[in-house]
Write a structure and sequence with these properties.
- It is a single chain.
- By secondary structure, the chain is mainly α.
- Helices cover 72% and strands 0% of the residues.
- The protein contains 13 helices and no strands.
- Helix 3 packs antiparallel against helix 7, helix 3 crosses helix 8 and helix 5 packs across helix 7.
- The two termini are 17 Å apart.
Amino acid sequence: MKIKGPLLLLFTALLWGMAFVAQTQAADAVEPFTFNASRNFIGAAFLVGVIFVRIRLGHDAAPSKRAVPVAKGSTCADSADTPGGSSAKASGQLSGYSFRALLVGGFLCGLVLCFSSFLQQAGISSYPDDAAASGRSGFITAIYMILVALFSIFAGKKAHPIVFAAVAVAMLGMYLLCVPNGLDQVYWGDVLVLVCAFGYALHIVVIDRFTYIDGVRLSLVQLLTAGAISLVYALVFEHPDMAQIVAAALPILYAGICSDGIAFTCQIVAQKTTDPTVASILMSLEAVFAALGGWIILGEVLGPVELAGCVLVFAAVLMAQVPDFIENARRKKQV
């Protein structure tokens, strides 16, 4: 078994989990759209550097002037760049990609990412000080992995019974996590982060439409799009202040460079050689790292009932990956 890919994905999950801590810290200084605009532009700048290095090393995949059809049964080079990416494309799929496809794909991905990340940051910002915002938001956001499986049902794909069991377990876990003291204790932040999970699930589905495009370049356009939209909304609805941005400089730099830049690059490299289901399971550990980071760095503490909810949500996320794990094992056995 190749260990490099899984280790990189574990590192990716760690970086993403710690990003919840950075977002919680930044929430005290800057408003959501201002924070996201800052981190997106920093992440984009980092990816420009990554692309420059790839060009120097001869590993870059720039847009083609003329896309080349893939032979039937072949796969696209970037089909594993994202969870849920197709492993094989039908005849007529393109091995190259046009600049127009890059712009369209990046814009659509960035549009969904912009409002999903806004809902997440707005939710984190609205939590009271004693709500363990990092851990709660991390586990609630992880629900997106189950929602991706549900979205495939609406797309006409037959669902495995385990997926429905995972949904039931996730609902119970959400209840324990968000309603430990009764329905009147539900935080508005929980609602916003849950809606953001739907957005991230949609983001996965949209990305899956553009897996033939180079992942780093797609992410660059995505971040520039999300950053530009966030900046417009920040200028219209918020009150960006350079002093506040400087005060939150460290969390913003971490979110932009480590979460948007390094983690995404590690994900691309690792998923080339890692089973997609194993990759999804490893990346779901970001919820665990979010809770651990909140506890160690911010002193956040979840109560026994909330911890039980976290365990159930995490178990549901793992359960949702079982059908793909079984299917991948069956295919390998046939081969």
